[in-house]
Specification:
The protein contains 10 helices and 14 strands. By secondary structure, it is of the alpha/beta class. The chain folds into 2 domains: 211 residues, 3-Layer(aba) Sandwich (Rossmann fold), CATH 3.40.50.300; 75 residues, Alpha-Beta Plaits (2-Layer Sandwich), CATH 3.30.70. Strands 6-7-8-3-9-10 form a 6-stranded mixed sheet, with helices on both faces. A hairpin with a 2-residue loop joins strand 12 and strand 13. Helix 5 packs parallel to helix 6. The longest helix is centred in the middle third of the chain and has 16 residues. The chain is elongated and about 70 Å long.
Length: 306
């Protein structure tokens, strides 16, 4: 792999593969994530997201290929390297028996780049008291406390794996506001993994889609949405066979009208529908949630490459 400075890419993989027996979780993955901004990684269950994170953080070796994080081989990370990386997962694992103040003091001693202002700014979004035991915190408070601890360590890269899973609406909003503050302050690059497209749409500058262990898309969320369109056609009979519909992601018939979700189609698609017997044709934009889920549903239904 060509050497690059950490300021250019925070993550690089080359022909990265990981097998679990007969299952190929990562399939020759080539991925480069630039420093700065918030990068969202999405994909269906089994797309390889968690496996990728475990390899990048040095918790799991690849079967073949290479992975670098902050310019370092992920399998050779030193304690100093790990101090540059913050990681928050869905469990928000913290010692339940310790008080908030004791956990904070312990973390402060371990990280020489500790940023008390960052900690105070994030924890201020939550009603967390220093004398409380971690086990007494709600799931939302625990998530906020975990994020505050992680940002205060002064990471250059923050990796978030489904951090809002199981949180209520209020707790999710507080978490996202804390995250947006951290990135706006220029503290770190963020890699955010979530199934919640409304979160991704709100926070992400870059959308990365993994499918069957391969890179299926990397673009701004708005650019990806622009590639997917929803067409409604009044066709008085069965309509064209699905296999003949260009760029088809999904097809439905609702109240006698044919609905098509398609990828990378322009006004030529309207001409196709009219040639197929449509008496009227209308196109509509789609949300990021609809675009991503339609894209994933189509690709997930396709057989894996040999």
């Amino acid at each position: 792999m060509t050497d690059t400075t950490p300021s250019e890419y925070v993550v690089e993989t080359e022909a990265l593969c990981k097998r679990y027996g007969a299952k190929l979780a990562l399939d020759q993955l080539d991925l480069r994530i630039a420093s700065s901004r918030i990068h969202a990684i999405v994909g269906a269950n089994g797309a390889g997201k968690s496996t990728l994170f475990r390899i990048l953080l040095g918790f799991l070796p690849p079967s073949s290929g290479q992975a670098r994080i902050l310019g370092r081989d992920s399998q050779q990370l030193t304690p100093t390297d790990r101090g540059r990386i913050g990681f928050v997962n869905e469990e928000h694992t913290l010692p339940n028996w310790m008080r908030v103040s004791a956990v904070t003091a312990m973390q402060r001693r371990h990280y020489p780049r500790w940023n008390q202002r960052a900690f105070d700014e994030v924890i201020g979004h939550y009603h967390v008291l220093p004398e409380q035991k971690v086990g007494q915190l709600s799931r939302g408070e625990r998530a906020g406390f975990n994020l505050a601890l992680t940002l205060a360590q002064g990471p250059e890269l923050l990796v978030l794996d489904e951090p809002t899973l199981g949180l209520d609406v209020v707790a999710k909003r507080a978490f996202l506001e804390s995250l947006l503050y951290s990135n706006a302050a220029g503290q770190c690059t963020v890699i955010y993994c979530s199934h919640q497209m409304e979160e991704v749409e709100r926070v992400a500058d870059n959308l990365i889609i993994l499918e069957r262990g391969r890179l299926a898309n990397m673009s701004a969320p708005d650019d990806f949405c622009a590639r997917v369109t929803h067409w409604v056609a009044d066709i008085p009979f069965a309509g064209p066979p699905p296999a003949s519909v260009p760029g088809l992601l999904q097809a439905q018939r609702i109240d006698g009208l044919h609905h098509y979700l398609v990828l990378d189609q322009d006004e030529d698609f309207a001409a196709f529908l009219r040639a197929s017997g449509a008496r009227s044709v209308q196109s509509m934009p789609v949300s990021l949630d609809r675009a991503v889920n339609g894209f994933l549903a189509k690709n997930h239904a396709m057989p894996a490459a040999a």
